[in-house]
Specification:
Its main location: membrane. This is Cation transporter. Keywords: Membrane, Transmembrane, Transmembrane helix, Transport. The protein is mostly helical. It has eight helices and three strands. It has two domains: 203 residues, Alpha-lytic protease prodomain-like (Up-down Bundle); 78 residues, Cation efflux protein, cytoplasmic domain (Alpha-Beta Plaits, 2-Layer Sandwich), CATH 3.30.70. Helix 5 packs antiparallel against helix 6. The longest helix has 31 residues.
Protein backbone atom coordinates (compact mmCIF):
# COMPACT_ATOMS: atom_id res chain seq x y z
CA UNK A 1 0.00 0.00 0.00
CA UNK A 2 1.38 3.39 -0.98
CA UNK A 3 1.99 6.17 1.51
CA UNK A 4 -0.83 8.23 -0.03
CA UNK A 5 -3.25 5.33 0.43
CA UNK A 6 -2.15 4.98 4.07
CA UNK A 7 -2.79 8.69 4.65
CA UNK A 8 -6.27 8.51 3.09
CA UNK A 9 -7.03 5.39 5.15
CA UNK A 10 -6.01 7.16 8.36
CA UNK A 11 -8.28 10.06 7.47
CA UNK A 12 -11.26 7.74 7.14
CA UNK A 13 -10.45 6.06 10.47
CA UNK A 14 -10.10 9.36 12.32
CA UNK A 15 -13.32 10.59 10.71
CA UNK A 16 -15.03 7.47 12.06
CA UNK A 17 -13.48 8.13 15.48
CA UNK A 18 -14.75 11.72 15.50
CA UNK A 19 -18.27 10.70 14.44
CA UNK A 20 -18.39 7.94 17.06
CA UNK A 21 -17.41 10.43 19.78
CA UNK A 22 -20.24 12.75 18.72
CA UNK A 23 -22.73 9.87 18.55
CA UNK A 24 -21.77 8.47 21.96
CA UNK A 25 -22.14 11.86 23.63
CA UNK A 26 -25.34 12.69 21.73
CA UNK A 27 -27.08 9.34 22.29
CA UNK A 28 -26.37 9.14 26.01
CA UNK A 29 -27.30 12.80 26.60
CA UNK A 30 -30.53 12.63 24.60
CA UNK A 31 -31.35 9.23 26.09
CA UNK A 32 -31.03 10.56 29.64
CA UNK A 33 -33.04 13.69 28.92
CA UNK A 34 -35.64 11.84 26.83
CA UNK A 35 -35.97 8.88 29.26
CA UNK A 36 -34.97 6.25 26.67
CA UNK A 37 -33.08 3.22 27.95
CA UNK A 38 -32.77 1.94 24.38
CA UNK A 39 -31.02 5.12 23.31
CA UNK A 40 -28.76 5.05 26.37
CA UNK A 41 -27.85 1.43 25.60
CA UNK A 42 -27.16 2.39 22.00
CA UNK A 43 -25.01 5.29 23.22
CA UNK A 44 -22.98 3.02 25.48
CA UNK A 45 -22.38 0.78 22.49
CA UNK A 46 -21.09 3.86 20.66
CA UNK A 47 -18.46 4.22 23.38
CA UNK A 48 -17.20 0.84 22.21
CA UNK A 49 -17.14 2.28 18.70
CA UNK A 50 -14.58 4.83 19.90
CA UNK A 51 -12.37 2.01 21.15
CA UNK A 52 -12.93 0.06 17.96
CA UNK A 53 -11.79 3.00 15.81
CA UNK A 54 -8.59 3.26 17.86
CA UNK A 55 -8.04 -0.49 17.59
CA UNK A 56 -8.60 -0.37 13.84
CA UNK A 57 -6.02 2.38 13.45
CA UNK A 58 -3.45 0.63 15.66
CA UNK A 59 -4.05 -2.74 14.01
CA UNK A 60 -3.52 -1.37 10.53
CA UNK A 61 -0.49 0.75 11.42
CA UNK A 62 1.28 -2.13 13.16
CA UNK A 63 0.34 -4.72 10.52
CA UNK A 64 1.93 -2.53 7.82
CA UNK A 65 5.31 -2.42 9.58
CA UNK A 66 8.02 -4.22 7.59
CA UNK A 67 9.78 -7.41 8.78
CA UNK A 68 12.54 -7.00 11.34
CA UNK A 69 15.05 -9.33 13.08
CA UNK A 70 12.40 -10.37 15.61
CA UNK A 71 9.50 -10.67 13.15
CA UNK A 72 10.76 -12.37 10.00
CA UNK A 73 7.28 -12.58 8.45
CA UNK A 74 6.29 -9.02 9.26
CA UNK A 75 3.60 -7.79 11.67
CA UNK A 76 0.48 -8.84 9.78
CA UNK A 77 -1.03 -10.69 12.76
CA UNK A 78 -1.65 -7.32 14.44
CA UNK A 79 -4.69 -7.01 12.16
CA UNK A 80 -6.65 -10.05 13.48
CA UNK A 81 -5.36 -9.47 17.04
CA UNK A 82 -6.93 -6.00 16.96
CA UNK A 83 -10.17 -7.53 15.67
CA UNK A 84 -9.99 -10.17 18.45
CA UNK A 85 -9.59 -7.50 21.13
CA UNK A 86 -12.51 -5.53 19.69
CA UNK A 87 -14.86 -8.52 19.59
CA UNK A 88 -13.93 -9.60 23.14
CA UNK A 89 -14.68 -6.11 24.46
CA UNK A 90 -18.04 -6.10 22.70
CA UNK A 91 -19.02 -9.40 24.31
CA UNK A 92 -18.48 -7.95 27.80
CA UNK A 93 -20.36 -4.83 26.73
CA UNK A 94 -23.31 -6.98 25.63
CA UNK A 95 -23.62 -8.50 29.10
CA UNK A 96 -23.76 -5.06 30.69
CA UNK A 97 -26.31 -3.67 28.23
CA UNK A 98 -28.52 -6.74 28.69
CA UNK A 99 -28.37 -6.38 32.48
CA UNK A 100 -29.47 -2.74 32.34
CA UNK A 101 -32.31 -3.49 29.91
CA UNK A 102 -33.62 -6.41 31.99
CA UNK A 103 -33.49 -4.31 35.15
CA UNK A 104 -35.48 -1.53 33.48
CA UNK A 105 -38.19 -3.99 32.40
CA UNK A 106 -39.27 -4.39 36.03
CA UNK A 107 -39.17 -0.72 36.90
CA UNK A 108 -41.66 2.03 36.22
CA UNK A 109 -40.19 4.81 34.14
CA UNK A 110 -41.54 7.76 32.13
CA UNK A 111 -42.27 7.33 28.43
CA UNK A 112 -39.39 8.15 26.08
CA UNK A 113 -39.63 11.49 24.31
CA UNK A 114 -40.65 11.72 20.66
CA UNK A 115 -37.82 14.13 19.81
CA UNK A 116 -35.29 11.28 20.19
CA UNK A 117 -36.49 9.82 16.88
CA UNK A 118 -34.91 12.45 14.55
CA UNK A 119 -31.60 11.91 16.32
CA UNK A 120 -31.82 8.17 15.70
CA UNK A 121 -32.77 8.73 12.05
CA UNK A 122 -29.60 10.77 11.53
CA UNK A 123 -27.53 8.07 13.24
CA UNK A 124 -29.00 5.26 11.12
CA UNK A 125 -28.21 7.06 7.85
CA UNK A 126 -24.70 8.07 8.99
CA UNK A 127 -23.80 4.56 10.15
CA UNK A 128 -25.00 3.01 6.90
CA UNK A 129 -22.76 5.41 4.97
CA UNK A 130 -19.79 4.51 7.19
CA UNK A 131 -20.54 0.82 6.64
CA UNK A 132 -20.35 1.20 2.87
CA UNK A 133 -17.12 3.24 3.05
CA UNK A 134 -15.28 0.81 5.34
CA UNK A 135 -16.57 -2.29 3.53
CA UNK A 136 -15.13 -0.92 0.29
CA UNK A 137 -11.81 -0.11 1.99
CA UNK A 138 -11.67 -3.55 3.64
CA UNK A 139 -12.30 -5.39 0.38
CA UNK A 140 -9.74 -3.23 -1.43
CA UNK A 141 -6.98 -3.78 1.15
CA UNK A 142 -7.90 -7.27 2.35
CA UNK A 143 -7.84 -6.07 5.98
CA UNK A 144 -9.90 -8.17 8.40
CA UNK A 145 -10.06 -5.42 11.01
CA UNK A 146 -11.40 -2.94 8.42
CA UNK A 147 -14.06 -5.41 7.31
CA UNK A 148 -14.89 -6.08 10.95
CA UNK A 149 -15.28 -2.36 11.55
CA UNK A 150 -17.55 -2.06 8.52
CA UNK A 151 -19.82 -4.80 9.89
CA UNK A 152 -19.72 -2.98 13.22
CA UNK A 153 -21.08 0.16 11.56
CA UNK A 154 -23.80 -1.87 9.82
CA UNK A 155 -24.92 -3.45 13.10
CA UNK A 156 -24.86 -0.01 14.73
CA UNK A 157 -27.37 1.07 12.13
CA UNK A 158 -29.51 -1.97 12.93
CA UNK A 159 -29.29 -1.38 16.68
CA UNK A 160 -30.28 2.26 16.25
CA UNK A 161 -33.20 1.10 14.09
CA UNK A 162 -34.26 -1.24 16.91
CA UNK A 163 -34.11 1.67 19.36
CA UNK A 164 -36.13 3.80 16.92
CA UNK A 165 -38.87 1.18 16.69
CA UNK A 166 -38.94 0.66 20.46
CA UNK A 167 -39.30 4.36 21.21
CA UNK A 168 -41.93 4.82 18.49
CA UNK A 169 -44.04 1.92 19.82
CA UNK A 170 -43.69 3.19 23.40
CA UNK A 171 -44.77 6.71 22.44
CA UNK A 172 -47.73 5.59 20.28
CA UNK A 173 -49.09 2.77 22.48
CA UNK A 174 -47.89 3.86 25.92
CA UNK A 175 -46.24 0.44 26.37
CA UNK A 176 -43.13 1.51 28.28
CA UNK A 177 -41.48 -1.92 28.11
CA UNK A 178 -41.11 -1.60 24.33
CA UNK A 179 -38.13 0.71 24.87
CA UNK A 180 -36.37 -1.79 27.15
CA UNK A 181 -37.15 -4.66 24.79
CA UNK A 182 -35.57 -2.64 21.99
CA UNK A 183 -32.48 -2.25 24.19
CA UNK A 184 -32.38 -6.06 24.54
CA UNK A 185 -32.63 -6.37 20.77
CA UNK A 186 -29.69 -4.01 20.52
CA UNK A 187 -27.70 -6.20 22.90
CA UNK A 188 -28.56 -9.28 20.84
CA UNK A 189 -27.27 -7.61 17.69
CA UNK A 190 -24.06 -6.58 19.45
CA UNK A 191 -23.58 -10.14 20.71
CA UNK A 192 -24.06 -11.66 17.24
CA UNK A 193 -21.61 -9.19 15.75
CA UNK A 194 -19.07 -9.95 18.49
CA UNK A 195 -19.22 -13.72 18.03
CA UNK A 196 -18.84 -13.34 14.27
CA UNK A 197 -15.79 -11.09 14.68
CA UNK A 198 -14.31 -13.43 17.28
CA UNK A 199 -14.59 -16.42 14.94
CA UNK A 200 -12.98 -14.63 11.99
CA UNK A 201 -10.16 -13.36 14.18
CA UNK A 202 -9.38 -16.83 15.53
CA UNK A 203 -9.43 -18.30 12.03
CA UNK A 204 -6.80 -15.87 10.79
CA UNK A 205 -4.64 -16.12 13.91
CA UNK A 206 -4.71 -19.92 13.55
CA UNK A 207 -3.52 -19.61 9.91
CA UNK A 208 -6.71 -21.10 8.50
CA UNK A 209 -6.40 -21.62 4.75
CA UNK A 210 -8.39 -19.29 2.49
CA UNK A 211 -11.17 -20.56 0.24
CA UNK A 212 -10.56 -23.23 -2.39
CA UNK A 213 -11.36 -20.70 -5.10
CA UNK A 214 -8.36 -18.59 -4.06
CA UNK A 215 -6.09 -21.64 -4.03
CA UNK A 216 -7.33 -22.65 -7.50
CA UNK A 217 -6.69 -19.14 -8.80
CA UNK A 218 -3.14 -19.25 -7.43
CA UNK A 219 -2.49 -22.67 -8.96
CA UNK A 220 -3.81 -21.58 -12.37
CA UNK A 221 -1.73 -18.41 -12.28
CA UNK A 222 1.46 -20.29 -11.40
CA UNK A 223 0.86 -22.91 -14.11
CA UNK A 224 0.81 -20.13 -16.73
CA UNK A 225 4.58 -19.65 -16.26
CA UNK A 226 6.55 -21.35 -19.08
CA UNK A 227 8.34 -24.45 -17.84
CA UNK A 228 5.90 -25.24 -15.07
CA UNK A 229 4.48 -28.75 -15.52
CA UNK A 230 2.07 -28.61 -12.58
CA UNK A 231 1.68 -27.42 -9.01
CA UNK A 232 2.13 -30.24 -6.51
CA UNK A 233 1.44 -28.44 -3.22
CA UNK A 234 0.12 -25.02 -2.31
CA UNK A 235 -0.05 -23.96 1.33
CA UNK A 236 -1.55 -20.52 1.96
CA UNK A 237 -2.18 -18.39 5.02
CA UNK A 238 -3.38 -14.84 5.48
CA UNK A 239 -1.29 -12.33 7.38
CA UNK A 240 -2.68 -8.83 7.76
CA UNK A 241 -3.68 -7.48 4.37
CA UNK A 242 -1.79 -10.04 2.28
CA UNK A 243 -1.20 -13.75 1.71
CA UNK A 244 1.91 -15.78 2.53
CA UNK A 245 2.44 -19.15 0.85
CA UNK A 246 4.66 -22.15 0.14
CA UNK A 247 4.25 -23.60 -3.32
CA UNK A 248 5.82 -26.74 -4.83
CA UNK A 249 6.37 -26.36 -8.57
CA UNK A 250 6.98 -29.42 -10.72
CA UNK A 251 9.36 -28.89 -13.66
CA UNK A 252 11.06 -31.17 -16.17
CA UNK A 253 13.77 -33.31 -14.59
CA UNK A 254 16.04 -32.77 -17.60
CA UNK A 255 16.60 -29.02 -17.13
CA UNK A 256 19.54 -27.53 -15.24
CA UNK A 257 19.43 -26.28 -11.66
CA UNK A 258 19.85 -22.70 -12.94
CA UNK A 259 16.88 -23.09 -15.30
CA UNK A 260 14.74 -24.48 -12.50
CA UNK A 261 15.83 -21.60 -10.27
CA UNK A 262 14.79 -19.11 -12.96
CA UNK A 263 11.36 -20.73 -13.32
CA UNK A 264 10.92 -20.52 -9.54
CA UNK A 265 11.64 -16.78 -9.57
CA UNK A 266 9.24 -16.27 -12.46
CA UNK A 267 6.48 -18.05 -10.53
CA UNK A 268 7.12 -15.89 -7.47
CA UNK A 269 7.19 -12.66 -9.49
CA UNK A 270 3.96 -13.55 -11.30
CA UNK A 271 2.12 -14.34 -8.08
CA UNK A 272 3.38 -11.32 -6.16
CA UNK A 273 2.51 -8.98 -9.03
CA UNK A 274 -1.14 -10.08 -9.02
CA UNK A 275 -3.28 -7.16 -7.84
CA UNK A 276 -6.38 -9.25 -7.18
CA UNK A 277 -4.68 -11.76 -4.86
CA UNK A 278 -2.61 -9.35 -2.70
CA UNK A 279 0.25 -11.82 -2.14
CA UNK A 280 2.97 -10.57 0.22
CA UNK A 281 5.57 -13.34 -0.14
CA UNK A 282 5.99 -16.73 -1.80
CA UNK A 283 8.45 -19.53 -1.03
CA UNK A 284 8.87 -21.66 -4.16
CA UNK A 285 10.14 -25.25 -3.98
CA UNK A 286 11.17 -26.85 -7.27
CA UNK A 287 10.29 -30.53 -7.79
CA UNK A 288 11.72 -32.52 -10.75
CA UNK A 289 9.29 -34.53 -12.84
CA UNK A 290 10.08 -38.26 -12.58
Amino acid sequence: MSSSQEINLSRFIFLSLFINCLFALGKISVGLIGHSSALIADGIESVADIGSSILVWLGIKISQMPPDPDHHFGHGKADPIAALALSTFLIFLTVWVSFVALRNLGQSSPLPSLYTLPILSLIIVSKEILYRIFKKLGEKTGSLVLLADSWHHRYDAFSSLAAFCGILIAVITGWKQADSLAALATAALIFWNSIHLLRLSFLEIMDTAPSKSIELKIRNLAEEVPGVVKIEKCRIRKSGQGLLMDIHVVVSGSITVREGHTIGHQVKDKLCSSNSLKITDVVVHIEPLD
